[in-house]
Amino acid sequence: MSYLSLKNINKVYPGDVQAVFDFCLEADQGEFIVLVGPSGCGKSTVLRMIAGLEAISGGDMLLNEKRINDMAPSDRNIAMVFQDYALYGNMTVYHNIGFSLTIRGEKEARIHEKVMDVSKTVGLYDYLNRYPKALSGGQKQRVAMGRSIAKEAGILLMDEPLSNLDAKLRQQTRQELSALHHELSSTILYVTHDQIEAMTLASRIVVMNEGHIQQIGTPYEIYHTPANIFTASFIGSPGINLMKGAVEGDHFTGMNREEKPVLNFRIPRKFLKPLEDYRKGGLVMGLRPESIYTEKKESTGGEDYSFNTVVNTLELLGAEYNAGLDVGGFNLSCRISADQAIGKGQNVTASFDVNKVHFFDEKTGLRIKGQE
Question: Rounded to whole angstroms, how far apart are CA atoms 142 and 118?
Fold first, then answer.
């Protein structure tokens, strides 16, 4: 039995505005689950329903096999870290961390012991006498996390906790959070719209869009075997290349925006039968930017397809470029090593392994699985 079980959870607001549709999730103890998706997709609403801050319109929610739908937030053994930290400005770091224990009626000696332990865990031991106004954004976030850890709750909910931090501090805090989870082995449900946070922190990811779950899986599964076009497009930077096309014989013909053929390559054997119904179109090819290369590489045993192209955009990111390749008026994003001598407007020969290609049904958006 899962530690946290969400069964067909729905949320409907007044006016028949439905924010969450049949949300199902089984979370084991000690998992780090990240809910990711664009703003307004329903991920924070799910978190707030788990915390008891939003009423559930339908479905069942069980924590350690006990139904908690109508249970008060204070009785759920759940702690939550909010995006805006929600610290008490008139309290020191010490009293902010120990606040949940204070209102629970714990003895002062117990509170002191716990605050000391937690402050060392989150790196705030030297800041216990400071007030929130004297702390940096990252330190405030640690106070909020420390307060939740001190509560010793069964589940820790985090609602976009790093969104107010700058890029460098966000990366540092992300690493600290990952180490903290490993140390505490706590169950964490974490909401973000940042795919990097999702990929680096999660043991499993829940991808959401418009209130619906698009896919649940490990970061590897989400990235390498996306369930649909939305997941493939949302996860990955630069985004996946998507090109409409049709099957001609045993080849895929990719079209540009004017529906003129610009690519034509042999379809991998495992896809020949599943793609038989797409001879008149309705097919979308997906290709990750890192699967395209513009320099000679050692053979990996795959089946390479080469084509002529022009470099029309270059963005230097340090060790590599994000490049845009013009193929008959269609722009293909790819990554190019910064060590490679290349310039904007240059004619190059690019290649990719056809076995790295994804195929999607244009109408349903679903990924078409190959036959092994």
Answer: 10
CA distance 52 to 77: 11
| pLDDT value of position 301 | 57
Could you tell me which residues come within 8 angstroms of residue 41 by beta carbon, excluding any fewer than 6 positions away?
Answer: 208, 209, 210, 211
Give pLDDT, residue 297: 63
CA distance linking residue 184 with residue 195, whole number of Å = 24
Q: Give the DSSP letter string of 326-350.
A: EETTEEEEEEEETTS---TT-EEEE
pLDDT tens for 284-294 read 999 999 999 88
**What distance in Å separates the CA atoms of residue 121 and residue 116, rounded to the nearest whole number?**
9
pLDDT digits (tens, 9 = 90+) for 67-109: 999 999 988 989 998 877 788 999 999 999 999 899 888 999 9
Residue 325 to residue 317: CA distance in whole angstroms: 17
Angle (CA) 160 165 168, round 5°: 120
| Rounded (5°) CA angle 317-320-325 | 100
What's the residue count for the chain?
372
Strand partners, 361: 283
Region 192-219: what's the mean pLDDT? 96
Residue 185, helix vs strand vs coil = coil
Give the integer Cα–Cα distance in Å for 336 and 37. Answer: 28
| DSSP secondary structure code for residue 37 in this structure | -
Rounded distance between C-alpha atoms, residue 9 and residue 67, angstroms = 13
Measured between alpha carbons, how far is 65 from 2 in angstroms, rounded to an integer? 8
Question: Where do we find the tokens 């043991």?
Answer: 203
DSSP annotation of 193 reads S
Count of alpha carbons within 13 Å of 276, Cβ hemisphere only? 4
Rounded to 5 degrees, φ, ψ at 275 are -100, 10
The two beta strands, 292-293 and 304-316, are unpaired
* CA distance readout (Å), 16 to 42, 49, 56, 180, 208: 15, 18, 14, 41, 20
Which uninterrupted H or E stretch holds 110?
helix 108-121
